[in-house]
């Protein structure tokens, strides 16, 4: 028996020490990430972006395509990338498995392991949109991309996901009443079934900024900005919410539970606040953007869950790294960046810029945030290991 215990303990140690085991356990290190969009003609080069991200200690990065200059710049940096497959390629990937295999081989496999690519995001906000053919094609594209990673032997380390907007939901207030829309549910359920099989999370783009902009007569801006407020109570669950983002996330959890996927994790793949906007976007100010992103950074550093899922640590990618001057749409769309196009900070929430800035000072301790980001995963591994060892020693 003692020999068995020793052997099992040794195997357990090897498992938790293995880079592959840790990578399989999470495609997201810590709680904080960033979206690196490039719809601009004046932002820093990919090499400069790497310098900026490493100085800010931001390890988790999402990009919206597989631009090779970016993938090459990230080689050997330790920064972990989720690479986007653009919506324009989804239909082709859905109908042609060979094209999916070629795309994964040329844009993912070819850069591993030097560039740490931990995920592929197949499309963005496809369901709930106006293109029904694209929505129907999503599941086939997801399956073909996943099968390609499997054929190339990288499916255990590269996670497949797709991000959804809040347009997929109905009845999102109060959070417990949220369900998937009728026009979305029939496409969403088989997608969720597949993601459940391959252990992928539900990825949500959640913007309290937009919710407040369209409902400023009903929503307290302090509730949207993580400031002191009365909050709201969900009578069905008897839960209290003191900020809008938590309520949006728990609405997603409620919809997942209603669809039969109670155990699926929700990860925020986009959230942010615009610093400038059009006349009908008065909440898009530098002060509000700083307040939201500063308070969100503190919220994530606490490494806690939401009222409905208190033990499920919240993880979020912030939108976005830079202001992007070539984005279409409202002025706010061009002004979500934590950094300006020249690499200086848009406002100070504790990150250094490539250039100096006169943005107002932040109170958040950079070292305190770093410690919070790095300590949690280590403690989690030791806690699980200790629990299993105690059980074994009782045999």
Automatic annotation (TrEMBL):
This is glucan endo-1,3-beta-D-glucosidase. Belongs to the glycosyl hydrolase 17 family. It is an enzyme of class 3 (hydrolase). GO terms for biological process: carbohydrate metabolic process. Residues 1-21 form the signal peptide. The chain crosses the membrane at residues 371-393. It comes from the Eukaryota. Its EC number is 3.2.1.39. It catalyses: Hydrolysis of (1->3)-beta-D-glucosidic linkages in (1->3)-beta-D-glucans. InterPro entries: GH, Glyco_hydro_17, Glyco_hydro_17_plant. The keyword Transferase does not apply. Keywords: Glycosidase, Hydrolase, Membrane, Signal, Transmembrane, Transmembrane helix. One of its GO terms (molecular function) is glucan endo-1,3-beta-D-glucosidase activity.
């Amino acid at each position: 028996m003692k020999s068995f215990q020793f052997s099992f303990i040794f195997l357990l140690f090897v498992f938790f020490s293995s880079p592959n085991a840790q990578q399989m356990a999470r495609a997201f290190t810590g709680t904080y990430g960033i979206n690196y969009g490039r719809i601009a003609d004046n932002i820093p080069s990919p090499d400069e972006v790497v310098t900026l991200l490493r100085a800010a200690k931001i390890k988790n990065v999402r990009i919206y395509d597989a631009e090779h200059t970016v993938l090459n710049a990230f080689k050997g940096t330790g920064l972990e990338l989720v690479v986007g497959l653009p919506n324009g390629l989804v239909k082709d990937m859905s109908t042609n498995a060979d094209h999916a295999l070629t795309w994964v081989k040329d844009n993912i496999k070819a850069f591993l392991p030097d560039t740490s690519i931990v995920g592929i995001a197949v499309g963005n906000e496809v369901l709930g949109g106006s293109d029904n053919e694209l929505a129907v094609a999503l599941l086939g594209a997801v399956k073909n991309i996943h099968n390609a990673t499997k054929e190339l032997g990288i499916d255990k380390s590269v996670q497949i996901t797709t991000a959804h907007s809040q347009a997929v939901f109905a009845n999102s207030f109060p959070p417990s009443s949220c369900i998937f829309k009728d026009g979305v549910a029939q496409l969403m359920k088989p997608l969720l079934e597949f993601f459940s099989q391959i252990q992928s999370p539900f990825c949500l783009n959640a913007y309290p900024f937009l919710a407040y902009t369209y409902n400023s007569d009903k929503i307290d801006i302090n509730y949207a900005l993580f400031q002191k407020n009365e909050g709201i109570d969900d009578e069905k669950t008897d839960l209290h919410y003191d900020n809008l983002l938590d309520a949006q996330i728990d609405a997603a959890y409620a919809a997942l539970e209603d669809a039969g996927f109670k155990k699926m994790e929700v990860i925020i793949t986009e959230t942010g606040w615009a610093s400038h906007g059009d006349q009908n976007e008065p909440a898009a100010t530098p002060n509000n953007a700083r307040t939201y992103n500063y308070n969100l950074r503190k919220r994530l550093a606490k490494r806690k869950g939401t009222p409905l899922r208190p033990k499920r640590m919240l993880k979020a990618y912030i939108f976005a790294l830079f202001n992007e001057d070539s984005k279409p749409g409202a002025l706010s769309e061009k002004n979500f960046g934590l950094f300006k196009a020249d690499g200086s900070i848009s406002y100070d929430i504790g990150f250094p810029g490539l250039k100096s800035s006169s943005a107002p000072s932040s109170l958040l301790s950079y070292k305190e945030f770093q410690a919070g980001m790095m300590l949690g995963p280590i403690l989690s591994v030791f806690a699980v290991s200790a629990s299993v060892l105690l059980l074994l020693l009782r045999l």
